[in-house]
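User: Just a sanity check before I run the rest of the batch. Below are the structure tokens for the first item. I only need the designed sequence back.
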């Protein structure tokens, strides 16, 4: 699917060439204004929003610029304090308001999509090309444009997003040209306006207020293709409703701490070729008290068919959610009630691998409906199942999901599948748990797959050796990797196999061996180290051997030690072998 940032989203089969914000450092993601100022001395600069310190740095005398603020939501004035070396403080404010189209000054975002249109309701699959470009011009202005082209259809969009002291505003115009078989060519325009504002004193967040108006002859890409598809099938094109105007608003009102949150959501849509219009409004309140999450809401829906015909529906909803703890396991209970229906459900985990859910619903005009589901996570796949029963039907379903990774040494099965994954290779480390994740451990071949990692960011991959064989040692238990998006990156962990041997050793004259001195075998390979208390530690596959300890370049800064642990190895339950030997 296309991303829907400029034009409406639709399915396609093809290629996409685009910028990826995930490649940027965290401090450059999203929108935040660039701050410019002047310091008279070596000064400290503090940046605050709503009284909270969000950035701090030191600057040299002269002009300075801060362009790596982290994004902090949709708005709220930014206060800057420049604290000079002599204690003098100069303060100034930077307006900050944002809509989704806004970019930082100097940043850009682009995409080019080429492929065949794909929609389950439309049999046509013409080739399409779509491009878009956004450019952050300064703190207050972002420009954007886009094009769409297909067989008998073309559209171009121009727009701008502006940050003002009274909020952020985005406005764009789309012009379309469409040709049809059984009607004249059509051209029209669509105008879209959106607004966002955080009212700091009252903590009111008007996150989205959008209005769109389209002229009678304007067609979106999908609308044009749907009409052409209906024409070819000989079906009345009335089924393809063309929007005339649309209004949406979302308002969130944060209440004082502990009092929860109040919200209002509304939408209104009407059409050119239908007398139908749809209005929907929702108001709600939610809060949390000592683990009990509760909410109240009312939803009003109204569909008008001309001046005298309408359907109207109002629904009141109450939700409760709270955990119940049973020893090591927790059950989450959910209760939902409206005017004519009630639902009680429970979900939770048994152990570390099995999750479940069950619910009973009852409506005033029907008998109860029962639903149950469960998922079990094995080392190789996730097995799931669900069952539903009501008056008129029974339904059962079984699912099997996971990942299959083919690599140079074979095929690996995993219980989860992610877009970006890491293949872990740790020879002989079977049983080592990966990232402390249940059901994710190194298999007998020495491999494991980590299903969910963040692309273009450093991810810590750790191995826990607790469940490994005592005859295997990891040379390192943690590595960091930053994979590309969609890649399966490989991480190799070096291991040593053999007996873990501690040799209590001193020199021939009774002196302790130097701490951290290296231990070598007869092939001059480093095999161990001198630990505290003149204790030699090494991992070796040999029951007896001759070693030498070296702590300098002089001939008197080395000695030889021989060991034989054959007798100790008769006790197979020993994971660590202790012995004594003189270093001569």
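Assistant: Here's the designed sequence for the first item:
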């Amino acid at each position: 699917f296309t991303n829907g940032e400029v034009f409406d989203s639709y399915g396609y089969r093809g290629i996409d060439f685009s910028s990826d914000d995930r490649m940027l450092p965290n401090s450059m993601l999203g929108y935040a204004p660039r701050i410019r100022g002047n310091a008279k001395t070596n000064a400290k600069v503090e940046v605050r929003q709503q009284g909270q310190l969000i950035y701090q740095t030191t600057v040299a005398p002269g002009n300075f610029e801060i362009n790596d603020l982290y994004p902090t939501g949709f708005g709220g004035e930014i206060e800057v304090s420049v604290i000079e070396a002599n204690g003098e403080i100069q303060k100034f404010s930077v307006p900050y308001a944002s809509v989704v189209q806004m970019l930082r000054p100097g940043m850009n975002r682009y995409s080019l999509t080429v492929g065949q249109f794909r929609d389950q309701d439309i049999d046509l699959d013409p080739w399409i090309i779509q491009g878009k470009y956004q450019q952050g011009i300064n703190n207050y202005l972002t420009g954007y444009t886009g094009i769409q082209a297909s067989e008998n259809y073309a559209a171009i969009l121009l727009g701008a997003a502006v940050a003002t002291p009274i909020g952020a505003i985005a406005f764009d115009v789309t012009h379309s040209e469409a040709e049809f078989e059984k009607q004249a060519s059509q051209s029209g325009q669509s105008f879209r306006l959106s607004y966002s504002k955080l009212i700091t004193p009252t903590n009111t967040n008007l996150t989205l207020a959008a209005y769109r108006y389209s002229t009678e002859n304007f067609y979106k890409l999908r609308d044009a293709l749907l009409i052409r598809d209906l024409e070819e099938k000989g079906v009345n094109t009335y089924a393809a409703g063309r929007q005339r105007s649309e209004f949406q608003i979302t308002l969130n009102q944060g209440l004082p701490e502990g009092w929860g949150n109040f919200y209002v959501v509304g939408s209104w849509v009407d059409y050119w070729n239908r007398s139908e219009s749809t209005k929907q409004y929702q108001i709600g309140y939610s809060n949390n008290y000592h683990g009990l999450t509760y909410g109240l809401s009312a939803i009003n829906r109204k569909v008008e068919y001309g001046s005298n015909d309408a359907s109207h529906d109002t629904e009141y909803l109450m939700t409760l959610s709270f955990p119940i703890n049973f020893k090591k396991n927790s059950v989450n209970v959910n209760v939902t009630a409206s005017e004519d229906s009630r639902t009680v459900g429970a979900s939770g985990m048994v152990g570390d691998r099995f999750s479940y859910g069950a619910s009973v619903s009852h409506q005033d005009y029907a008998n109860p409906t029962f639903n149950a589901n469960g998922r079990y996570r094995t080392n190789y796949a996730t097995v799931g199942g669900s069952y539903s029963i009501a008056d008129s039907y029974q339904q059962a379903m079984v699912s099997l999901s996971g990942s299959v990774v083919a690599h140079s040494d074979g095929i690996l099965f995993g219980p989860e599948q992610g877009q970006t994954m890491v293949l872990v290779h740790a020879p002989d480390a079977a049983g080592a748990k990966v990232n402390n994740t249940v059901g994710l451990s190194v298999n007998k071949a020495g491999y494991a797959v980590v299903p969910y990692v963040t692309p273009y960011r450093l991810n810590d991959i750790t191995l826990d050796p607790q469940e490994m064989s005592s005859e295997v040692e990891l040379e390192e238990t943690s590595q960091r990797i930053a994979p590309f998006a969609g890649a399966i990156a490989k991480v190799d962990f070096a291991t040593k196999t053999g007996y873990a041997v501690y040799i209590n050793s001193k020199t021939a004259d009774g002196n302790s061996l130097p701490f951290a001195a290296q231990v070598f075998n007869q092939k001059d390979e480093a095999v161990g180290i001198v630990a505290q208390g003149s204790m030699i530690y090494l991992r070796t596959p040999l029951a007896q051997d001759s070693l030498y300890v070296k702590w300098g370049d002089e001939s008197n800064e080395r000695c030889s030690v021989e060991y034989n642990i054959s007798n100790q190895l008769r006790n197979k339950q020993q994971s660590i072998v202790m012995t004594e030997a003189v270093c001569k």
